[in-house]
Each structure stands twice: as C-alpha cells, then as structure tokens.
Amino acid sequence: MKILLLAFIACFIMSYSFGQNNFIQIEANKTLGLFSFLETSSGQLGTSSSFQKFINDSLKNDQQFVQLVETYSKLNLNYSLRRQEFPNDRYSSTTAKDLLWIAASNSSNIDDFNERIIGLLPHQTQVQLITMFKKAEPYYTTLIWEKEQENITRIQNQLEPYKDQIKHLYLNISQFYNTSWDTSIPFKIMLYPIPLRNGNTTAIPKGNALICGFLSNNEKDYKDRLGVIIHEMCHILYKEQQPDVQHQIDEWFATSKSPYASLAYSFFDEALATVLGNGWAFKQLHNGIDTNEWYNNKHIDGFAHALFPLTESYLVDGKHIDQEFVNQAIDLFEKKFPKATEETAILMNSLQLFANTDKEEEINAIADGIHTYFNIRSMWLSTPTLSKESKETFDKKNTTKLFIIESDNINTLKGIQETFPHINIQTPLNTIRVIKDDTSKSTIIIMNMNSIDNLNSAYKILSDITYLENEMTYKIQ
Predict the structure, then answer these.
(1) How far is Cα of residue 444 from the mean position of the Cα atoms in its chain?
(2) What percent of the chain is modeled with pLDDT above 90?
C-alpha cells in the first residue's frame, strides 16, 4: 500500500510539473501562416508592410494570385460580438476575425479550420473564405512554408530555454494587472515566418494565442521576439481583467479633473504593454535596459518611457494598478505631452466617427482610409449621421467627434447644429472645420465635402496639421 501511495504521489507530481511546464507553448502551424499570408497580401490592418512587399514582389506578375488577393480584400470578416458587462471605453466587443485567428492557431489543416469556424460567418462567406484558403495554399507552400522549416525550428529552439522566465514574468505582470488567468489554459506563442533579414514585423494577441511574425533570415531576431511576446501577453491580461476591475479603472480616469485624463486613457493599454514587455521584461531577460526605441510611435514610446520608473516600483512592491497609479500616469502623460489637448495625432487616437453613406464599400473606405493616416486605438463608426442611435451619442464626453459629410450636406449640418445649439457648426463646402466643445469636453471635426472621392485628400490635410486650433477652417484641395 505504501509503495502504491508513493508511486501515485510521484506520478501526480510529475503530471503537475508537466502541466506547469506546458503553460508556455511555442508553436507554428501552416494554417495560421496561410491566414497571415492572405491578410498581409491584401494589406489588412496590423500586417507587416515589409512582408507585403516581399509577397507582392514575388507574385505581382501572377494574375490569378492578384485576383485572389483582390477578392479576399472584399470579404467581410469583421462581424462584432458585444460584451455588455464591460466598459465601453475598454474592449467591449470582439469580431469574427478575432475568432478566426484563434481557430487558425489551433487548426491542423484547412479542413480542420473549416469545421472550427462554423457559425462565425454567413455560410456563403465561409465557403468563399475556405475556397480562397485552398487556392492560396500552393502559393504559400512554395514561396514560404517549405523553405522556412529550418528557420522555424531554429527560432523555436532559441525561444525554448526562455519558457520558465516568460512564465515567471507572467506571474509578476498578472499580479500588477490584477488579472486571474486559469493556468490550465496555456499561453501559445504562435510563430509565422517573414522571409527577410530586416523589415517591420507585427504581432497580435487573440484569445490565448500570442501571434508573432519573425524575421526568419535574421538569426538574432528571437531576442526581439521575447519582448514582443510579453508585450502581447500584457494586452491579453489587460483585456481579461474582471469587469469590476475594468469599471474601477474606467471610473478613475473618468472622474479625474485633469483635461489630459481621457487622452492618457486612450494610450494606457499600449503604453503599459510597451513598458512591461519592451522595457521591464527586456531588462529582466537581458540584464539591462533596451536603449533602442521601444515602440514605433512617438506617443506610445514616450509615454512608456515616462511610466517605466513608476511601473517598475509597483512590480518590485508586488502592487497592482490602483487609483494612485492612474493619477500619476495622467500627470506623467501631461508632462510628456503638454500640448496633447491640441495635438492631432493624439486627439485622433480614439474617436467617434459619423457618416451618411450606407454603401458598404464607402463605409469600408472611410474606416480603412483613416487607419492609413492615423494610429487609432479605438473607433466607433455610426451611419447615418442623424439616425436616432447616432444622435444619442453626440454628447458623449471626452471624445474626438469626426463628422464626414459627403451627401445631404445642408440637412446634415442643420441636424448637427440642432444638437449643438451652443456652438456654430456651419462649415463651408469642401472644407474641414475644427470646433472645441466645452460642454462635452470634446474636439469636433467636420469634413464637409461634395463627394466621397475627396475623402483621402481630407484625411491627408488633417494628418498634416500638427495642432488643431479652435474655430480653424482648412480648405480641402
């Protein structure tokens, strides 16, 4: 009996240890790589421009592939799922595409992927998507997958010794975020190769998957991936804070009397992921601060560097985000960007966008185009402008409100004016007008144009304006 008991205990310990050691998993699969290949080829948001150039340079003369990419770019994969119990200013929704990424990261092949995504998309859209996956697979196999097996194995072996350190960092960071994560659900580091030595890479967190592109021709790229992995883990832990924690943080920012509070909040998630992943975690892994740029955006990079001493002190003391941390973060943001309340790039980081068009291709052009010119964390788009649902949000406080008026111009301006009787909304045709609304503590931007064809010109003009001054009007060329 004693021998059997000891054997049972030994087996239990081995099983427990094995489970714990598998909390961090490092994988690569062809289906995920293929999904990234199609997303990148069609220039979707969050993809690598360097990878896209490589694909286009390799296949630009193949008309069948060019047509495939064009067709893929027109698929609607962004149906939204609302999480009602979470704050509106946090991750209150997810999209079908998010769930497609998760399914792809767990799929052994296209047919397996096809079964996993049933119900996420309309049936015909799913049929089209799978057809395009199968048509694109030979291109991906020949151009990338078969050639990169050795490099995939190399980076997996390079990252493998860091798994215990990543797990240790996770324990500190999850405590800081005040997030509980069931460790029976592993974090999966999902890798896909970008067959270049230099260039830009991207990474996205989806569910428990940290999806990372890596420069497969650069043998030292794994060092950069380590910071990226922690960075994306931070986004997941921030997103998965309990609703009461999210509402508490939301309230601390909302009740702050600082005019910089809402702007600091709009950069908070990305700055924290950067300071923790690219700053603090890098220091733990490599015994020194990374002297290079942490994030390819001056506002996120600057805010993260400003937050570093405060965040490190909280981690050392085992403290989680509290009201004092939020208040100091707002103060640090103000000191770093004293003209943030007027700076276009900061004001456009989080916005409400209103338009009149009901044509899907024009709505997509509005949404995609604005991401071309601005780094946007969150955007709420509503059409038509004067619908009941839209007008109910006109008085939302501390947001940038962008009105794109490309049709029914006179009536739309009249309707907006009725909602904001205390300010002069009138905007000449083919101009951009900026108005500071003290009542809603918001910046209102009106683009009044005679055609949707002027949209890119308007975006370009707005992006070239460094600071938005009250009552200024700019002509759309």
Answers:
(1) 24
(2) 78
- Tell me the percentage of the chain whose pLDDT exceeds 70: 95
Confidence of residue 3 (pLDDT cuts 50, 70, 90): very low
CB count in 10 Å sphere of residue 199: 17
205: cis peptide before it, omega within 30°? no
Give whole-number Cα distances, 54 to 58, 217, 440, 464, in Å.
6, 13, 46, 29
Q: How far apart are CA 60 and CA 66, in angstroms?
A: 7
More confident of the two residues 4 and 312: 312
In whole angstroms, what is the distance from residue 342 CA to residue 63 CA? 47
Q: Are strands 350-355 and 400-405 parallel, antiparallel or unpaired?
A: parallel
Report the run of H or E that residue 434 belongs to, with start and end: strand 431-437
Domains located in the chain, CATH noted: 25-162+183-216 (no CATH), 242-336 (no CATH), 344-475 (3.40.50)
Question: Which sign, positive or negative, has the C-alpha torsion 368, 374, 378, 384?
Answer: negative
> In this structure, is the dihedral angle defined by the CA atoms of residues 408, 411, 416 and 419, taken in order, positive or negative?
negative
Each residue's pLDDT tens digit, 191-208: 999 999 999 999 999 999
What's at 90, amino acid-wise?
R
pLDDT value for 217: 96
User: 279 Cβ partners below 8 Å, 6+ apart?
Assistant: 289, 290, 294, 304, 305, 308, 311
Which pLDDT score is estimated for 13? Answer: 38
Of 271, 184, 263, 192, the closest CA to residue 234 belongs to: 271
Alpha-carbon distance values, 352 to 40, 134, 264, 348, 409 (Å): 27, 38, 17, 9, 19
Determine the 3-state secondary structure of 192 from DSSP: strand
